[in-house]
Design brief:
Blueprint: H1 5-25, H2 30-34, H3 41-54, H4 58-71, H5 76-91, H6 95-108, H7 115-127, H8 138-153, H9 160-187, H10 191-204, H11 211-225, H12 228-241, H13 246-257, H14 269-277
Helix pairs in contact: 1-3, 3-4, 3-5, 4-5, 5-6, 5-7, 6-7, 7-8, 8-9, 9-10, 9-11, 10-11, 11-12, 11-13, 12-13, 12-14
Length: 283
């Protein structure tokens, strides 16, 4: 789990006395929430960190961090509280609120050292929802855009490497969804529709782990349609790039069973891919 430099720098000092200080300064209960004006920005902020570390409800910490921002809007503590609002909301799985706080930090403090962390939190707020999306991939695209911003705008930050790894996984996720739909069509004999899905994977997601299977399924679909040239060309690309893959072994067996070889033939979109990938000819 990534940490902001703010929380890291304060946490060591704060945690040593937080249990006592947090409880002695604040009596607890709703009365604290109604009378926060009598506390300093630092005291309210530290109470937020206390709640974050000791409570099972990150939203309790959000309350205190947001009050720092409300009561002391132009203070250094307000800036720190804003990034911690984003982090606490993310822990509470309140992703829209996390994005809102992170974006406010980026807009208000674009040159701050924690702007990279705010952008990373914004990206995580999309990324961590990907598995909940089903067939609607809008959040996946937004995660990719936000992760790309981390990679391109903050390439030397400690978050860039994690953003790259998550970008690749999100990219693979999109390709996997295309494969899922393509397989659905293929099993039901809707070959043209399945080809369209597998083509997207080969053309737009060719660096993902889904490409070998996509080429195999193209071989199957084209053979089913009697389009042997396209099937052979898909097999040739598969053999060139993934010869040790079990997907190639399957494709080779299917082609050989029809008396066909895995070689580029005809003049289709796959032939263009073959020229680019295998022959290095881009024109």
């Amino acid at each position: 789990m990534a940490r902001s430099k703010i929380s890291a720098s304060l946490m060591v000092a704060v945690l040593a006395g937080m249990t006592l200080a947090g409880c002695s300064t604040f009596g607890g209960g709703e009365s604290d929430r109604r009378n926060l004006e009598r506390f300093t920005a630092e005291e309210i902020y530290k109470r937020g960190e206390f709640e974050l570390e000791n409570s099972r409800r990150p939203e309790d910490a959000v309350y205190y961090f947001s009050e720092v921002e409300r009561l002391y809007p132009y203070s250094e503590w307000a800036k720190r509280a804003l990034i911690m609002q984003a982090y606490s909301n993310h822990r509470a799985e309140e992703y829209e609120e996390a994005r809102g706080a992170a974006q406010r930090f980026i807009d208000t403090y674009p040159g701050d050292e924690d702007a990279a962390y705010a952008q990373y939190l914004l990206a995580l707020s999309y990324y961590d929802q990907i598995d909940e999306v089903g067939r609607d991939q809008g959040l996946t695209f937004q995660a990719l855009q936000a992760l790309r911003a981390v990679i391109e705008q903050y390439p030397d930050s400690e978050y860039a490497r994690s953003a790259i790894l998550k970008f690749d996984l999100a990219f693979d996720h999109l390709a996997a969804k295309e494969m899922e739909i393509g397989r659905y069509y293929l099993k039901r004999g809707h070959y043209a529709a399945s080809i369209n899905r597998f083509r997207v994977v080969v053309e737009e997601f060719q660096t993902t782990s889904q490409t070998p299977e996509a080429l195999l399924r193209l071989v199957e679909a084209y053979l089913a349609l009697g389009l042997n040239d396209e099937a052979q060309t898909a097999g040739a690309i598969l053999g060139y790039n993934f010869q040790s893959s079990p997907f190639y072994e399957d494709a080779y067996a299917q082609l050989r069973g029809r008396g066909l070889a895995a070689e580029a033939r005809g003049d289709s979109w796959l032939t263009n891919i073959y020229r680019q990938v295998v022959q290095g000819r881009w024109l």
